[in-house]
Specification:
Blueprint lengths: L6 E3 L2 E4 L2 E2 L2 E6 L9 H13 L4 E4 L5 H9 L3 E4 L13 H18 L5 E8 L3 H7 L1 H18 L4 E6 L14 E4 L5 H15 L4 E6 L3 H4 L1 H17 L4 E4 L7 E2 L2 E2 L16 H13 L13 E7 L6 H9 L7 E7 L6 H5 L4 E6 L4 H10 L5 E6 L2 E3 L3 H8 L7 E3 L2 E2 L6 H8 L7 E2 L5 E3 L5 E4 H7 L11 H11 L4 E3 L5 E3 L5 H21 L15 E2 L13 E2 L12 E2 L9 H5 L2 H13 L5 H21 L14 H25 L8 E8 L4 H12 L6 E2 L8 E5 L3 E11 L5 E11 L1 H19 L3 H37 L13
Parallel strand pairs: 4-5, 4-11, 5-6, 6-7, 7-8, 8-9, 9-10, 10-11, 14-15, 14-17, 15-16, 19-24, 20-25
Antiparallel strand pairs: 1-2, 2-3, 12-13, 17-23, 18-25, 19-23, 21-22, 21-26, 27-28, 29-33, 30-31, 31-32, 32-33
Helix pairs in contact: 1-2, 3-5, 6-8, 8-9, 14-21, 17-21, 19-20, 20-21, 22-24, 23-24
Length: 815
Amino acid sequence: MPKPVLSVDGKFFRAGTERRPVRGITYGPLPEGYTDLARCRSDLEIIRGLGCNSLRLYDIPPPPFLEACAELDLAVFLTPPWPSHTDFLENRHTAREIRRLLVKTVADLQQRPAIAGYFIGNEIPAHLVRWMGPRRVLRFLEDCLDHMRQRDSARLYSYADYPSTEYLQPSSIDFAACNVYLEDRIAFRAYLERLQHLADPLPLVVSECGLDSLRHGPEQQAETLCWHIEESAQAGLAGVFLFSFTDAWRNAGSDVEDWAFGIVDRDRLPKLAAARLPAWWEKSYPVSRASPSPGPTISVVVCSYNGHGRIPFCLQSLVEQTYPPHEIIVIDDGSQPTLADKAAVFPSVHFHRQPHAGLGAARNAGVAASTGELIAFTDDDCVPDRQWLERIVRSRETSSWDAAGGPNLPPPETSLVARTIQCAPGHPSHVMLDDRHAEHLAGCNLVVTRAAFDAVGGFRSHYRIAGDDVDFCWRLQDIGLTLVYVPDAFVWHKRRERIAAYLTQQAGYGKAESFLFDDHRGRFDGFGRTFWRGRLYMDAAAASPPPCPVIYYGVNGSAPYQFLYGSTPWSRCGPWSAALSFPWALIAFSCFGAALLFPPLGLAGLLMLGFTLAAAVLAASGCRASPRAGGKLSPLLLAFLVLGQSWIRGGAFFGGRLWRGGTWRPFVSTDAFPTDATHPQRVLLRTLELNEPETEPTPAGPWSRADMNFQHGLWTLSSLAQVEERHQRQLSLFRLRLRSGPRPLWLAAAAALLASSALLALDGHPLLAALTAIFAALFLGCLLYENRTRHDILWAAVELAAAPLRASGSPSSRV
């Protein structure tokens, strides 16, 4: 079998040892087909002269055509023709015939060296997907992909989607692809940013884009294709396929005469775009990259604790950066033995050693020793891509930011256990506020300006293992600074290979979250789960069971852009998520202990644990590893890891709080701070009325001790009181107090249930009494949990609204 033309390299493609962008163009179906091979070879030579290195075909070419492609070094991506415009799932015979056709195509062409990959389909119509059901269509595509890959595992596989069915992405593809026809540059740029998140962590390719010169003219076509290529490169895409080479086109058995998308016309006469295309390719997707122009100086800080076997690979990748760092600083955080001999191999590395003080303190020490304008952080178990710093710096041309970072991708693993751990939850991930701006960037891929670092005072030293990056990003946002996500600036981040190491890591994360809870209480609920304002992007199975998605189809499935929505972010609520939490497990095992005195409670504990096991199995089901790494997982092991990660991380969180003497806050929160604002009470109330309309804020009545009441739907009532104390130096001490509690009706309902349980027990019905008591306890627990959650959210909003009222000046000037 010939070697593959292309292979996946993170967010890009590689040919041999060199990274290769896809500079593609579509070809055919031609009205005359491939009957005139001399004409076809001439077309291929013209395509090569246009600077293209890849070809997308929509029908199966003869062997001489593929041989010519191989001679001209044109990588072919083939879309086998099958009736995707029909209800192909109506009967099993049709589906089997399509699968047989796809497998036969792969088998017949597997010896052809020009074939780089396959698109399993192209733009299955949205109304048909809606009719057949997205899940059924996805299962069919996954099944076809599995059969095709069994015949030829060396080629790359994808599905050419389009915006109307952007939710239709098989999980076992090697790269993501989408046909995007947008005539507005800003809209095109914004949609590519969205597609990068949908594709993460795969390479992304625009599988079709173009403009009709018949309706828009050759000049506008040339201009549009130019910025199509430029924007794709700036968005970090692995390549682009322009549509199309020639105006000659055949669709559904008929020649198309009323469009002119070609770079050349039907007689192969070049249009304006053809003359400019080679320069566009070389500017945006150069084959050999020149040295980047000088920019800001970057200091790279790598902190390590006993990373003797990992840090040489990290330092080697930093030395080989295409944008050379101003300095590379290694902080040895008390490793035994010292890492000095590892760093000495690289003469340009500045080595510093300190007693073991933890990650936050080590990073601060690295910054103190640095002199660069930008400070880049990565971990000793990371291998940054060679263009990591170059792409971070280049992002400053299109976005103004105070901190930036990109994805951290796991390298391929051959071990079944290691692949399964990669898909388990709890690994570092970015959190996005929108498609460009981030709420959190992982500390292993983080670049910050020196001014921003100094503005927040660096990292907090009590974060010794983890959590320092989350705290740092939140504090940056609290003072109004901007975090930007750069999707093509990635680092390879080695995950844990052993189960014990993975669970130990999760325990460390849980302990770190207990510190985050103390420092950012408004961002956590009562179960210790984080209230992310943004969206947490991760592999589909590396999380708890997701909520049932909702697809916006539009009336009669006619919406041009149909999106996939979740009912709520899964990290915040949901019965499945609660069933995996540490408090749920604690209650379940407590029921087993109480069953010694009251046997029916044992049944309740058994049902709760059964629900927990179902949640873990559901989280593990449907998870698939990368096809490049074998594509096999251990579902039982993954279910165990989901369960163990949740319990160990949650137990470490609560244990950390109890160990430090932390207590649960009542539904009362207070704050006091100096202010020099005039009438701060009025300012705060007006701000809350404008910013929190969903909580229905209303002024309190004349007989109330509060100033404002808040109604959270049917469950919760809150009241805010404030007072201003007059002091010297024209400062006032402004005090706030927020109280929340369940509505009396629901407390009465819980009391009634408990009373009914007691009456049933006295009446000789112990089983009914136990079930009623359990229901009452669950109802009361859910009620208190809802109130705790609403109170924390509202208190965070109150603190945010009060931030502008705080007096400026040094802490010593406070009253």
